[in-house]
Amino acid sequence: MKKHLLVLVLSVAISFISTAQDTFSIVAIDTITGEVGSAGASCIDENGIPGGVIVLSDVHPGVGAIHTQAYWLAANQAYAKQLMNDGLSPQQIIDSVVANDAQNNPTRRQYGIVDFRDGVVRSAAYTGVNCNDYKNHIVGPNYSIQGNILLGQEILDSMESRFLNTEGELICRLMAALQGAKVVGADTRCFAYGTSSLSAFARVAKPDDPVNDLYLDFNVPSVVSGVDPIDSLQVLVDAWGGCLGVGIEESVSQTTVFPNPAENKITFQTASGINTLRIFDIMGKEVFSRKNIDKSELSVDVSHFTQGVYSFQINSFENKLISGSFIVH
Question: Model confidence over 233-266: pLDDT tens digits?
């Protein structure tokens, strides 16, 4: 049965131009199931763009997905959509959209595209030289990860590592990628809010889904002050129930990690207590582990850690799994 929580129906008639840039996103294909996935987050919410960052997502069930971001333009997105409908490959779509930018200014755009036709999966990405720093993309055989106005390359690397090292349904792997970017200021505009972003989404289409009725279509267009939308999005996915053990099971107000980014020491504090704490580097290698802690607060010396993004897992007194990320700089 299809699940739809906090889904916003976006009108194809949207014609405004957003001067805001998206921050981090992923498009991916599950070559076993034929599912198409799309997920992302930004320090732009529905107050800046109706519906929030989900506006950049264009999912074609059974075919592929397109993300048009960085100074998002409806005309460019519509053109890319038509090219995918016409059967062009991801690279051909990018080449044509760049060559025919609606404002003749492709250097400030960013694209990530995947498709799956006749058993062959293809991917491509483009990052214009005039996108705001830090900007870059990572292209894998069945995925593309891209972002701009980022804290650094570590955000994209962490997303890729979490995506590749997570098992289960495509939605679980998409959420793992977003959790890999859930650090304060991942989109640097969000440092002031103490979050990674202000809106987030995750979508998965089965091969036979209607375009406007996807298998999973989760959207968090905005959040209350201090709450990370990736946490809120994880709550929706966890309520669906297909990703047990992925992400958090408590609200951000119950679990605190500070300071983040950290230099010498980081403290974990949770209302339900800490029984076990494990910390992993960006490649998934365990760099810290402690059991039988039996405390509600624990500080860890990270002065010897290499700079970058780290993920953590906490088992609480009630044996709930809490996970997240932090940066050491």
Answer: 988 888 787 775 444 444 444 678 888 888 899 9
Query: Which amino acid, 66?
Result: I
Per DSSP bridges, beta strands 255-258 and 24-30 are unpaired
Q: Where do we find the tokens 């980022």?
A: 150
Give the pTM: 0.76
| 3-state SS, residue 293 | coil
Rounded to whole angstroms, the maximal C-alpha distance in the chain is: 60
Beta bridge partners of 270: 255
Residue 59 has pLDDT above 60, yes or no: yes
Contact 202, 233 (CB under 8 A): yes
Q: Going along the chain, which residue ranges are E strands?
A: 3-5, 24-30, 35-42, 57-60, 64-69, 110-117, 120-127, 136-140, 143-147, 199-205, 216-220, 255-258, 265-274, 276-280, 286-290, 295-301, 308-315, 321-328
What is the average pLDDT across 132-139? 96
3-state SS class at 159: helix
Q: Is the dihedral of CA 20, 36, 216, 182 positive or negative?
A: negative
CB 187 within 8 A of CB 217: no
Using alpha carbons only, what angle is made at residue 179 by residues 172 and 159, rounded to the nearest 5 degrees?
A: 90
Tokens of 126: 């483009």
Which residue in the block uniquely carries the two structure tokens 């109706």?
Answer: 50
- Alpha carbons 188 and 69: distance in angstroms, whole number: 16
Token pair for residue 147? 């972002």
Give residues with Cβ within 8 angstroms of 14, minimum separation 6: 50, 55, 74
